[in-house]
Amino acid sequence: MTVFRTSLRNFLAHKGRMALSAVAVLLSVAFVSGTLVFTDTMNTTFDKLFASTASDVTVSPQGADDDDAPQTGRPETLPASLVEKVKSAEGVKSVDGGVSSMSVTVVNAKNKDVGATNGAPTIAGGWSDNDLKSMEITSGHAPRGPTEMMVDADTADKHHLKIGDELRTIAVTGDFKAKISGIASFKVTNPGATIVYFDTATAQRELLGREGLFTGISVTAADGVSDEQLKKNIAATLDAPYKLQTAKEAADAGREEVGSFLDVMKYAMLGFAGIALLVGIFLIVNTFSMLVAQRTREIGLMRAIGSSRRQVNRSVLIEALFLGIVGSVAGIAAGVGLAVGLMKLMGSMGMNLSTDDLTVKVTTPVVGMVLGIVVTVVAAYVPARRAGKVSPMAALRDAGTPADGRAGKVRAAIGLLLTGGGAAALLVATQADKAAEGSMFLGLGVVLSLIGFVVVGPLLAGVVVRVISALVLRMFGPVGRMAERNALRNPRRTGATGAALMIGLALVACLSVVGSSMVASATDELDKSVGADFIVQASNGQPIVPQAQKALEKTPGIAHVTQYKGVNAKITSPDGKTVDDELVAADATYAQDLRRKTVGGELSAAYGKNAMSVGDTYAEEHGVKVGDTLTVAFKGGESAKLKVAAITSDDGNVDKGVKYTSTATAEQYIPADKLPKNLILFASADDGKEKEAYTALKSSLAAYPQYKVQDQTDFKQDLKDQVGQLLNIVYGLLALAIIVAVLGVVNTLALSVVERTREIGLLRAIGLSRRQLRRMIRLESVVIALFGALLGLGLGMGWGTAAQKLLALEGLGVLEIPWPTILTVFVGSAFVGLFAALVPAFRAGRMNVLNAIATE
Length: 856
Hints:
Layout: H1 2-13, H2 15-53, E1 57-60, E2 78-79, H3 82-87, E3 92-98, E4 100-101, E5 105-107, E6 122-126, E7 135-140, E8 148-152, H4 153-158, E9 166-171, E10 174-186, E11 194-198, H5 200-208, E12 213-214, E13 216-221, H6 227-237, E14 243-246, H7 247-294, H8 296-304, H9 309-348, H10 363-388, H11 392-396, H12 405-430, H13 435-455, H14 457-472, H15 477-489, H16 491-529, E15 534-538, H17 546-553, E16 558-572, E17 578-586, H18 590-593, E18 598-601, E19 611-615, H19 616-622, E20 629-634, E21 639-648, E22 659-662, H20 663-669, E23 680-685, H21 690-700, E24 707-711, H22 712-755, H23 757-765, H24 770-808, H25 819-836, H26 838-845, H27 849-854
Parallel strand pairs: 6-11, 8-10, 17-22, 19-21
Antiparallel strand pairs: 1-13, 1-14, 2-12, 3-13, 4-6, 5-9, 7-10, 8-11, 9-10, 15-23, 15-24, 16-17, 16-20, 16-23, 18-21, 20-21
Helix pairs in contact: 1-9, 2-7, 2-9, 2-10, 2-22, 7-10, 7-16, 7-22, 9-10, 12-13, 12-24, 13-24, 14-15, 14-16, 14-24, 15-24, 16-22, 16-24, 22-26, 24-25, 24-26
């Protein structure tokens, strides 16, 4: 109990010094807890949605796509006569035939797409009694004919739609208009999908092409009949294979489809939380190291009156335990707030998440508490162990904690060994022949070099700080020299403080190099290989509807339009092996639109009758040569014998490994209603008419806002913007680690000022002004920040360069160092140092000179 009380007294006595470390723990735990709460809430939202929309048993076509958005633009269907068969099964209470399609775009009177902008689908369907399970009509009435439709309340609110407004629906069967007759609200949270309803006959005719078809049948069980039993009864009634799912199976399938996306988000955010936690460890280690050094005399007195090493060690660890508990409790509470903030942010981006579904599982606070406490205690272990080694006599002489020169040499040797091992692993990664093999060495090199730099930090501090000081501080005269000596006074402390900043900036530099290289490589590849003047595709990945294609083909000034569609098939090679694959069916002009290097034959010949091409990787694996015949069983169509007319090189990245055939060949073996629609259209202008054709194309497709018309400049900029958006999200998440690192610099300086109180008093006594004192501390902070930035940026560029060499094996062969970003981050680090020093410098400047000199 004596040790416990002593620890509690010390913790409360130094609560101001502990505050910043507690903030580091708080931020790290908050990010972990917030991520768990946010993803659990999303899971709850989707679970409720799937549970509310799933019938006791659902009957679907056997070949129905999970996402209900096939490339044909029309969902797989069931005959309406099947409803009566299902109704005759034992245990059936009611049956509803349903129509639903996600291959639609809905636009308002201003020709603006009213669909979601966050990737959520636009779903059009026929209104039925089954929809009353998840929806309720809150205004107007259900659609009663071909000129009426109903929209969901969220979409109506977002786009200011009201009853009587006319909307145009674009489907592969054509465009049709209807006026809003009613607005329906979800009984549970709608994550962001746009829902429109028509009467059943209109939905069948306009979405499926004719009446008498359904996309699914919803079955309700009679009282006392289980879903599983009902499923068996229906299966026994049907004489053809259909996809039957119970409510649980349908909900599980929906959850699995969404779950992969949620898992990626969850683990990515937890990864960044882990980085922040790692950075926080340095802050905690520094805090306790300095607290132990400042209490050397106190520890010596404790040892002199009988305290054992174990008791001193335990006393420091108990203080760390208090810090971990306080920081973790606050972090868990902050995590819930962070989750709510993320929900609001997602709401502004179009994904609706209600706080009514806020889910805080029991495991979340447990994980937060364990994580925060364990990390804090582990981080404090080394300073605690060092405190236990202080001998009573050395402490009473104010000798401080014992310096172990041999330990420093061993540390430097281990650090250099790890750094060398990391560099060797990175070098091996750059020499790999396959990306999969090289990625293992890349990961090993990143880990070893990072640990090596952290361990060898004190040794590097002695060299790097002197170089930075020579370039930055010497112009400030004696104040600059004092700032340099202060930074070099304790290389271990400077190394640990700089390492915290190094980690975050290393990742920023690495990702900047990789992102810039990806954009540069793709741009270079486009310049070399793409010959088409224009590219037309949907922003949401949907196929291009025939009416839009016809409008494009009629555009004046266009020399040719090339179709490009993906066709699924089973391909059997001469060695007898069959694989599920996809062919690209394109027009012969695609050979002009995309310049593909061939290693055998002519690519133009692959667009002839009953011909195709393969990539050289496939050809090598299966022993395929030009002139060989492959058996191709087209999905939804017939089998064909196609002659290999060309073998393309897989060195590039555009259409790497793609197998080509002609549009005519695909049309010959696949029925028209099963033939996929075009994913992309390529177009080239008449010579010298590029600008006029570009304007005309945009005008031709103005009625179809879901499609983007891009020339090569637009396409490159779009690619750059997409990579830039991804990097901005990553930088935003890494900002947490950098904030913790800044707190580390603030904490180090604050404790350093307390440690040097008497020295500061003497400097003031011999003539150092307050202004000079504050400048000295600010310059010390700048040097530490630039030290961490220099190490981090150098390390990150090394990682990024090695990663780019692996990407070169996948066709991204251009290395580009984003020097403006690197220099901006480096200069920004100096401002970070200035900012971090504001409070410590201000407090140092306000010290009373006599009281400071009298401090022991």
